[in-house]
# Entry
Amino acid sequence: MDTESALRSGLTSTPKYIPVWYRYDKAGSIFNDRCLSDNTYYYFYSSEMYILTSNIKEILPNVSEVPHLVDMGSGNSEKTRGFIDSLLVNHDTVTYIPVDISKDFLADTSYQLSEIYGNKLLIKSIPGDYDVGIERLRDVTGLKIITWLGGGFQNQKYQDQIRRLQMLSEVMTDRCRLIVSLDITQEKEQVENAYLDPTGISADLYLNAITRLNREYGCDIKADSLRLGAEFTKSSVPEETSYVKLFGTSQHDQQHSIPGLGININLAKDERLYFHEGKGVSCKYTIDQIRTLASRAGIYLANYWTDNNKHVAVCYFSKGKI
Ligand SMILES: C[S@@+](CC[C@H](N)C(=O)[O-])C[C@H]1O[C@@H](n2cnc3c(N)ncnc32)[C@H](O)[C@@H]1O
# Structure
């Protein structure tokens, strides 16, 4: 579905929503970086960094063949740099394939990486949606290390998580590694504070979806007419995950014409406009739920590494049983 159709569909459905990926233009990517560096409630970043730096040799063991390093939702590529550096210890060059919907930010990051690594790093960026990136991987032969870091994976609808894992398994061989960071935190208050921090840093990221909609499609929805909320919903069955609902509650009745999309919308007082599709976003998993997810996609959870606080699991999925 193209951007306009996805927005039209979200803003005219019940309840109304704006897809998660729409917040990630260049400004959104910069806000996302600020959430990582400045939001001290966002436990995911520090836990994931700790796990990756402490276990990189196990997560990415030596391989004789030069692999392609694929980075799904690459963002600022900060964490993947640990993988690049590690591969360059044993190989003269690395081919790096970052996939990201935030095209300008991807171009900037790729340029910065080429300045740092020079001709040791062959960068083949794929600007676009995850599906576009995975399709392009069909043409990439040889060993692939595929990373999906920083919580991007868990921001998808559960059905999309299964579907994209299945698609990835089709482009993997038994020797390929898929490394995905997943949030395993289960405490309501901790989760809600991380996603809507009392210091207000994460708010800019969600509201960027509104700013971008106003700018690109000619409407005038005031950010302060929406009161932001985050709600954690816990699941205890392996067939589902816990998740967070993120939304803005309309402070009064409002009508908006969105000429670029050819629609008018009403937001009633107390109506919620969600910043994601489906029941929730930012899924939280138990290890059983991760195993169930993998088996539904026809792949295996071969190993995982966690931090002492049990916030994050960096998971190694394989195509065949190890
Ligand atoms: C939570 S950030 C993670 C960034 C980075 N991997 C990290 O560890 O900090 C998610 C990234 O995925 C990208 N993204 C979100 N939805 C996407 C989609 N549907 N297709 C491709 N990229 C997407 C965003 O632009 C953003 O860079």
